[in-house]
């Protein structure tokens, strides 16, 4: 039939249109379709690259602006910080450090006496009882006067063993501590109780009242010495006046009393009261220090 070839071509055309995604049936296929597709692909790639370039450019601009702002803030902070620092550096050139001392030797006015008693026996209870009796007897004598402060010290009780570790005896020791500013009264009390307890050690110290009084006196002297040094050094450096920037006042701590060990008396000598001992406290140093800095003008 005359129309059949046309119909067949139309169907082929339709199939071809379906495979390659051409325009709907009945429309003519544009010539050179492959070239248009390639051109469109190239155009798309160029657009993508332009978009990426624009994105990087915007990021770079943002980073540059952030860095510039940070630099401005840092510069302003450094400038603000440097201004007081420069003033301080200018002041340091006229700062002078000084230290002055005032020292005095004073008599130690307090005596400390240690009395002790020792016992040994086969029974721990007996040794402990004998030590308690001696300590109580000494305390009863001490309570009869008010010039000496007496208090119990350390008490110890321990066994003596042989090579096999068996206990063969018990030993014990008890102490009394006496403190007084009246050296004569302390020495007489030690003599009175020497038939019960022996003198183990003697030491001397400066009382708190004497220490505070001496420090107050020396503080005024040390402060005046500091001012004198500041004035003389200011003139020596060519300045006319000064102001105190910083100052500290300190005093040395009193030395702790060190007991002087006494030679132990024999049992026969301890039977009778020993004569009173002449006590001399000796001297100790008290020092006050004033240190600081001054600004010369």
From TrEMBL:
GO terms for biological process: DNA damage response. InterPro entries: 26kDa_periplasmic_antigen (IPR052022), SIMPL/DUF541 (IPR007497). This is Periplasmic or secreted protein. The lineage of its organism: Bacteria, Pseudomonadati, Pseudomonadota, Betaproteobacteria, Burkholderiales.
């Amino acid at each position: 039939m005359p129309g059949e070839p046309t119909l067949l071509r139309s169907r082929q055309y339709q199939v071809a249109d379906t495979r390659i995604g051409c325009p709907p049936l009945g429309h003519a296929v544009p010539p050179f379709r492959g070239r248009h597709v390639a051109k469109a692909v190239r155009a798309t790639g160029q657009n993508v690259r332009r978009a990426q370039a624009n994105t990087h450019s915007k990021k770079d601009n943002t980073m540059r602006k952030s860095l510039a702002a940070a630099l401005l803030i840092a510069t302003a902070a450094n400038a603000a910080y440097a201004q007081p620092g420069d003033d301080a550096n200018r002041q340091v050139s006229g700062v002078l450090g000084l230290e002055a001392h005032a020292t005095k030797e004073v008599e130690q006015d307090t005596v400390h006496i240690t009395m002790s008693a020792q016992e040994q026996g086969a029974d721990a209870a007996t040794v402990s009882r004998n030590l308690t009796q001696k300590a109580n007897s000494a305390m009863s004598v001490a309570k009869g006067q008010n010039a000496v402060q007496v208090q119990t010290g350390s008490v110890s009780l321990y066994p003596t063993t042989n090579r096999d570790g068996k206990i063969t005896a018990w030993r014990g020791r008890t102490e009394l501590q006496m403190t007084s500013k009246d050296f004569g009264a302390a020495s007489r009390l030690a003599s009175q109780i020497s038939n019960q307890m022996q003198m183990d050690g003697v030491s001397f110290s400066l009382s708190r009242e004497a220490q505070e009084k001496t420090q107050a006196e020396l503080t005024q002297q040390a402060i005046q010495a500091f001012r004198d040094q500041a004035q003389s050094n200011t003139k020596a450096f060519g300045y006319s006046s000064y102001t105190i920037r910083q100052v500290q006042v300190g005093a040395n701590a009193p030395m702790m009393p060190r007991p002087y060990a006494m030679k132990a008396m024999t049992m026969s000598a301890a039977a009778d009261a020993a004569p009173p001992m002449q006590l001399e406290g000796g001297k100790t140093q008290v020092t006050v220090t004033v240190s600081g800095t001054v600004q010369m003008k």
